Amino acid sequence: MKNIWLSIFVLILYSCKTKSTHVTLKKTNIPLYVGTFTDEDSNGIYHFLFNLETGELTNQTLAAETSSPNFMVYSKNRKYLYTANRSTNPNLPDYVSAFKINKNGTLTLINTQNSEGKSPCHVAINEEGTIISNTNYHGGTVSLYQINKDGGLSKAIQVFNHNTENQTSHAHSSKFYKNELFVADLGRNAIYQYTLNEGKYNLKSEAITNTPGNPGPRHFTISNNGTFIYVINEYGNSITSIKRDNSNFKTIDFDSTLSNNSTGKNFSADIQLSKNEQFLYGTNRGENTVAVFKREAETGTIEKIQNISVEGNWPRNFTIDPTGTFLLVANRRSNNISVFKINQNNGKLTFLHDVKTPSPVCLLF
To answer: Is the pLDDT of residue 5 over 70?
Structure first.
């Protein structure tokens, strides 16, 4: 009997020890990839560790040596990374690249494909994770690529040329939404709409809404339910808010991104919704600020509540961490990344710190 009770006691101790050693630990540090222009001191794509509790960026390393990877996107399984690259050799075409992500954070090149235009500046992935879109600023074209089984890219399966005899296109960004592809064309002052039919994307609308003047749509974001589209205008330093009703689009709001006392030239750049979609953020190059807007979920209208310095020069791109707690800004000309804390109650930003890195222009969590 004594041996039986001893055995039971040992089993209980083992069980407790086993449970205590299987406690799930919270992952504090996550990777951040930084795309750059390599015409100065940068060599390609850099890798950082980002602390989700403190917002600190550490362990900067060169993840891949590549030419001006100025925009990036993950594959859906996050095993691969795709970039828009500007060639440093004027005799070679610009291109898009596919990389395999290694366990240590470095990147291994799988293949490259011709961008089918000049100055590629944005890449996006469809919801199924099977197609990459690329926009070419100086070429005025949009190219689509199939993702192969090994994560590499096929040759372009479709190329859309937005140039006309009277207008020069500057295709600047694109986004997939379900079976649609939207493209912001800064040169032709329009948001294009393509729809998928029998495996091909076809142009449905060259301008989903009429925009007075020439504000220059650059980047845009779409609400999760697809009802609202927010476009940041590079020339107009403004945000156009658009509401969708089935196949109809209507401009419902038009707001300045600049401070009330702003002077001098400015070129607005990037735009994103907060994780809870209660707030909207946009960057200003020249004024060098982040504009913060409060958003009404039902009506889709926005109201500016803050302009805060980016603590740097020429904020081209920014990102929000996966928890929605921090906002990070890539300041190209001052060679630094600024980290802000997001107030979860009112959406306003507080500057925390920054880290030096060469020519940052795209940030990817």
So the answer is: no
